[in-house]
Amino acid sequence: MFGFLKQVGTYTQEAVSAAKYIGQGLGVTFDHMRRRPITVQYPYEKLIPSERYRGRIHYEFDKCIACEVCVRVCPINLPVVDWVMNKSTKKKELRNYSIDFGVCIFCGNCVEYCPTNCLSMTEEYELATFDRHNLNYDNVALGRLPTSVTSDPAVFALRELAYLPKGAMDPHEVPADAPRAGALPAQVLAGLTAAAEDAAPTTGAQG
Amino acid sequence: MVTLPVATLPPAGLDLQASFLDVIQGLGLSDGLAHLLWLPLPMVLVLVAAVVGVLVNVWLERKISAAVQQRIGPEYAGALGVLQPLADGMKLVFKEDVIPVRADGLLFTLGPVLVLVPVILSWLVVPFGQNLLISNVGLGIFLWISLSSIQPIGLLMSGYASNNKYSLLGGLRAAAQSISYEIPLALAVLAVVMMSNSLSTVDIVNQQAGAGILSWNIWRQPVGFVIFWICALAECERLPFDLPEAEEELVAGYQTEYSGMKFALFYLGSYINLVLSALLVSVLYLGGWGFPLPVEWLAGWLGQSVDAPLVQLVTASVGVVMTVMKAYLLVFFAILLRWTVPRVRIDQLLDLGWKFLLPIALVNLLVTAALKLAFPAFFGG
Questions:
Q1: B340 at the A interface (CB within 8 A)?
Q2: A94: helix, strand or coil
Q3: Do residues B201 and B288 make contact, with C-beta atoms less than 8 angstroms apart?
Q4: DSSP state letter for B95
Q5: Which of A14, A199, B274, B299 is deepest in the core (most CB within 10 A)?
Q6: Cβ–Cβ < 8 Å for B262, B113
Q7: Pairing mode, if any, of strands A45-47 and A136-138?
Q8: What is the ipTM of this complex?
Q9: Chain B closest-CA separation from residue A27 CA (Å)
Q10: What is the pTM of this model?
């Protein structure tokens, strides 16, 4: 008899705590309804990619020395470097260079290792085509300057959450020239040199 | 058909049928012809109300779901996307109606009809005011319970006729779920019925009309309210009880093979059922068409007679608005619940139904009976 009552007691406790947890969950979902939608209405609004964004690769034909380091560091040996040996000048003569973005994984190894910095990552990510063979970019296509989201008048460019000023949550309401959160590399550097200069005279006075 | 007010009831509320019949007979038509003209009007009105209710419900579902997930939701079809459900409906109307080759054509077609018809028929007993319902059937709420048990037959039928393992499993789950949750649902309703001494929905609401919000059944039947709401969600196959359509396991359950208008019937049926359940919760526990303050008191303070035509009209409109508002509050709650609680497993579902809700509902019924004997003034003598 007593055991049964105890069972009923624990069962009731469990039921009450379950109800409490459901209540807590409802509180969370209800609270979310008051929050700003995180939606970026894509064709009309676009996020500005970060500086380190690894998008379509830009390539400068004239800088390339056809060393094929990019091919060797590529996980799948993707870049095609088409060169011939010019016997008379004893130099490599680059004829063509291409990367197939249908296969590229945008790891950035080629950019990292290129000895002449002729490769670089851009912020372009809209590479869709009707035919996958169109994704095989030759040196002309690779050499095209990247377009920026901010320069497109038809697009409302939004800054990513980490780039918004401190406290701001809605990129729609932040003007384009508002200072971003955190310091730019130049500002960090200026701060460091100032600190070093501050530190130098005090040590000199003590010595 | 709207019945005439019984002599014992307060004469409140306008009687549209009597007024309509008076006008038609005033034009010199016979009594029978006037009745014949009146007959289709409330039916069509309620059917339209049900369908519009579904459209509003679908829109709310999409918008609230979006808000809960910090999205925007439909935006381009009409202002704030209000025409989106209409666009969905139009798409389904024009879609090809496929019957799988090895399926049983007759049962396959009959299934969705058998699901939808009882749900729409149940609107017969939903009161929006003293005389604002299609029929004040004496069996009232019991009619709804019995009609809602026809639905699983339709689900099972469509699941079996689809000749698809997912459909069959979905149909079987739907049947098991409906049978398990029908019993606590009926017991919860029984406790309310016991307090109001009547199965008629109008009587149930009138019994809660004494002192506005304080006399609503939710204060006297809090446990019954929770049981009824859980069971209603299970009957509507809403999350957390959407096992029959669990898309991760069963594709879409019994709806897997359906497309076009037949699918639309299921879709319509499930949403009409949700609105209906919400309406019945508001009727059974939240005072139906009652305003939080009794309208009679308000009229008295304003120095108006309750029987004045204008006051009657205002009272009736307030009643309709209150019923719909309470129902949609519950619909909102159901949608919020959808994004809060995860789906239960089939064993948890049956555990909850048989080992938790059923005993609690029985205890609730017994306690209500005891309280009714002990305090007849508060629990309906």
A1: yes
A2: strand
A3: yes
A4: S
A5: B274
A6: no
A7: unpaired
A8: 0.72
A9: 9
A10: 0.78
**How far apart are the C-alpha atoms of B52 and B271, rounded to whole Å?**
11
Cα B197 to Cα B174: distance, rounded to the nearest angstrom: 33
Contact, B334 vs B240, CB < 8 A?
no
B335 interaction partners in chain A (CB closer than 8 Å)? none
Instruction: Nearest chain B residue to A21 by CA: give it.
Output: B341
- Per the structure block, which two tokens stand in for A152? 């497109």
| pLDDT tens-digit map of A17-32 | 988 999 999 998 888 8
Helix or strand or coil: residue B185?
A: helix
pLDDT band, residue A201 (cuts 50/70/90):
low
Using a CB-CB cut-off of 8 Å, the residues of chain B touching A39 are: 70-72
What does the buried/exposed string (b/e) look like for B137-153 if buried means 16 or more CB atoms within 10 Å of the residue's CB? Answer: beebbbbbbebbbbbbb
- Is 90 exceeded by the pLDDT of residue B104? no
Q: In this complex, do A36 and B70 lie within 8 Å of one another by their Cβ atoms?
A: yes
DSSP single-letter state for residue A172: G
Task: Closest CB to B70: pick one of A28, A30, A35.
Answer: A35
HSE, side-chain direction, 13 A CA sphere, residue B327:
27
**Partner-chain contact A33 B64, CB within 8 Å:** yes
Higher pLDDT: B104 or A204? It is B104
Among B222, B261, B247, B236, which residue's Cα sits nearest to residue B91? Answer: B261
B/e letters for A25-49, b = 16+ CB within 10 Å, e = fewer, are bbeebbeeeeeeeeeeeeeeebbbb
Q: Across the interface, do B70 and A28 touch by the CB < 8 Å criterion?
A: no
| Residue closest to B272 by CA, chosen among B114, B90, B122 | B122
Tell me if chain B has a CB within 8 Å of the CB of A37.
Answer: yes
- Looking at residue B258, the DSSP 8-state letter turns out to be -
Given an 8 Å threshold on Cβ–Cβ distance, is B336 in contact with A32? no
Nearest CB among A26, A39, A41 relative to B340 is that of A26
